[in-house]
Amino acid sequence: MAGKTLFDKVWDSHVVEAIENGPNVLYIDRHFVHEVTSPQAFAGVKERGVGVFRPNQVLATPDHNIPTINQDQPIKDQLSAHQVDTLTKNCEENNVTLYGLGHEYNGIVHVVGPEQGITQPGMTMVCGDSHTSTHGAFGSIAFGIGTSEVEMTLATQCIMQPKPKSMRINIEGELGAGVTAKDIVLYVISKLTTSGGTGYFVEFAGSAIRALSMEGRMTVCNMSIEMGARGGMIAPDETTFEYIKGRRNAPTGEQWEKAVAYWKTLPTDADAKFDLELTYEAADIEPQITYGTNPGMGTGITQNIPSLDTIEEASKKTYLQSMKYMGFEPGDKLEGKKVDYVFLGSCTNGRIEDLRVFAEAVKGKKKADNITAWIVPGSRLVEKQAIEEGIKETLEAAGFELRQPGCSACLAMNDDKIPAGKYAVATSNRNFEGRQGPGSRTLLASPLTAAAAAVTGVIADPRKVFNL
Fold it and tell me: Which residues constitute the domain of residue 197?
């Protein structure tokens, strides 16, 4: 009998029923909810009189449109205030745990799950948010779902899903100086395009992936959906176990030993076959930055924007449209282009490690005068750590301000909007037209590359700026 992949092992152990020529009924271990995609779902279970089936497996936290300043005051935006109030009421009515605004554990849902020890290997996890794939870094199957599926999961703790195909992407070798997890995933998306992973669940593997911290692995899995994949995952190992151990919801004592013994059985078997396997060399990756209006339109920081004759015929119209929107010309040099905003945060790069990297880079330097910077921690715990570790002090000495946690300018559902026509180097995950505010122009990059832009005021190679 052929070996099994990590994905197969987790998926197959959660199938309640396989419908002939149809989807699988999949049991869900953990369901995260936030204020934007849950109101209709809660209303639906209430109307049907079924309630929430297993409330102790559901966790709620407002994050998408909460303000990142003055969180102790009432929310000014009426729609945001209404959504947050509705989430509070729904959780109270259904006995669902809520880390509300101001709660010591509040934060971006995909930052909160891992730091609380809720996210664990071998689980199935869903949330009404596409970047649920973040949790796959722990060797779990995690994916985003729509509002009707949120309702289905609340009502039954199950979901109907067709089983995706499997892909493995290997990154082999050592990363160069100044090259991070964010650069790995932006590089892969630029090679595969935003549709290259469609229909697949991706396992990231190889020596460069194994060398990443858990924060780095979460960044890679977070953006797996930007290549069209259903989700991404990484096999659990000692790095995973060390990260989980001692966290609030982690198993303890004998249960811990049992859990680790099971987790060690999850990695892909040596003789397992994937539907598609790709390998990239870590040495070929330099700090990345996007230049267009989807995450696949990216390149190395020292490279020029591709010229029109290198673009495939089918993509030329989109390419030219994106150049017009971004105010760039085909073949332009990216280094040295003026930037207006820098955003450090989001479920992609709002963890403590990201703030440490940024703060260490700007230490002893000054924010460029033309830059408006939003430094947004991913959770209250990250904010607390940043204060305790002196990160806030370092940032303030360099002219930066640490805001309060939330999704912030990643999708501009709150007041953190990039003005029309302005350029933002952002550590978030999407650069679609208007994503960070109507008419905003987003360049995706790593926290280190964002730090280089923040102190120089232009797109800059962090290796040169920080002598790496």
Answer: 165-284
